[in-house]
Amino acid sequence: xxxxxxxEVGRRIGVGLMYGLWKPRxxxxxxxxxxGPVILAVNHSHVIDGPMVxxxxxxPTHFLIKKEAFIGPLDPFLLGIGxxxxxxxxxxxxxxxxxxxxxxxxxxxxxxxxxxxxEGDFAALRAGLAYFAVRGGAPIVPVAVLGSSDRPGxxxxxxxxxxSRVDVVFGDPFEAGDGSGRRTRKALDEATERIQKxxxxxxxxxxxxxxx
Length: 212
Description:
The chain is 38% helix and 17% strand. The protein is built from 6 helices and 7 strands. Helix 3 (74-80) links the parallel strand 3 and strand 4 (84-86). The protein is globular.
């Protein structure tokens, strides 16, 4: 299972890197519940979004990360800092078990609900977020990372300018389910719609708040 101690090491590394290279401005971190299971749902437009959230989140975070990122020395490193390797081409039961284990242990699971880097606007959500939230009994905290890319969705590997400001805005936690505990396909589809509305509204508020 992913190690929380490892994730704490990852958080400290993230703090050093993110604050050393850029100027993170963190808003609303107090909204993340101090204890118990929680899911951070993060928009994704740049490769630094995950490390940025790991570094500024108030609790160590285990991100679901595509297996393609686990190459060479990054494989043992990412596993060592408590991250979860996911095969997106199949139903990765090992990753699902590990992710649910993180929540069962009262940990923090980080998810990019859009599935991959894109516009970073939560326009296309996958059902996985709803599944983990309902099955794991975890509230969702929306997280907007703004300023990591001057052109959202670009496929180039350019990084934000050194010492530039990157805003990370945490929203209010909310429950994905309808209170019935149902985990049917219909219930998860309905939960995904509710989640999308909440995440989109948070992103709009974050943009107004930061002027991004």
